[in-house]
Amino acid sequence: MFTGIIEELGEMVGWTATGDDSGLIAIRGKVVVDDLKHGDSISVNGVCLTAVEISGEGFTADVMGETLRRSSLGELHPGDPVNLERAARLDSRLGGHLVQGHVDGVARIVGREAAEQWTTVRFELPAAIRRYVVEKGSITVDGVSLTVMEAGDDTFAVGLIPTTLSLTTLGHKQVGDLVNLEVDVIAKYVERLLGERS
């Protein structure tokens, strides 16, 4: 479980194929490896991965075909920045919202509008998750916990403050780039529970 508060802007270093549709991704991130251990969960652009090897300022993680098909990790190239967050601890503050690291959809950025102190970014809204995205609700974009400013039929928008722009990949991403989306898990549980009652 994560909070969506990015700890470090890391870097994708390399990819080693381990099968027809799987591989080992190498990530540089000197902050997150400080106490990272083999088998620990770590969020990479909003995708929960398991650390395999930790050395120096980086780590590797297995990525299977299912993860590549359901996320944008397969689009990464060496040198690309990535959002990194270690799993939340029960004795820490919940600064964002409850994030599982399970991607619900991939979408493209369709617009960016810079203001003096913040930037509005608009994303595609995949039909499969439309019902979970509401104005003032929480959404995770590339692992970043954000508040939805506006939710339409086909798009949604968020506002990014300077800190988010400078400390996450969202400051670098441009129109046309892909992002990983995760909706609020509580909404999915409520829907399931209410559906079973009817």
Automatic annotation (TrEMBL):
Ranges in a coiled coil: none
Signal peptide (from-to): none
Residue intervals of the Lumazine-binding domain: 1-97, 98-194
Superkingdom in the source lineage: Bacteria
Repeat keyword on record: yes
GO biological process: riboflavin biosynthetic process
Catalytic activity: 2 6,7-dimethyl-8-(1-D-ribityl)lumazine + H(+) = 5-amino-6-(D-ribitylamino)uracil + riboflavin
Enzyme Commission number(s): 2.5.1.9
Family matches, as CDD domains: Riboflavin_synthase_like
Top enzyme category: transferase
Family matches, as SUPFAM superfamilies: Riboflavin synthase domain-like
InterPro entries: ATP_synth_asu-like_sf, Lumazine-bd, Lumazine-bd_dom, Riboflavin_synthase-like_b-brl
Pathway(s) this gene product operates in, as recorded in its UniProt entry: Cofactor biosynthesis; riboflavin biosynthesis; riboflavin from 2-hydroxy-3-oxobutyl phosphate and 5-amino-6-(D-ribitylamino)uracil: step 2/2
Record keywords, A-Z: Repeat, Riboflavin biosynthesis, Transferase
Lumazine-binding repeats: 1-97, 98-194
Pfam families given in the database record: Lum_binding
Molecular-function GO terms, alphabetical: riboflavin synthase activity
Record's subunit section: Homotrimer.
Biological function: Catalyzes the dismutation of two molecules of 6,7-dimethyl-8-ribityllumazine, resulting in the formation of riboflavin and 5-amino-6-(D-ribitylamino)uracil.
Protein name: Riboflavin synthase
Species whose genome carries this gene: Asanoa hainanensis
Organism phylogeny: Bacteria, Bacillati, Actinomycetota, Actinomycetes, Micromonosporales
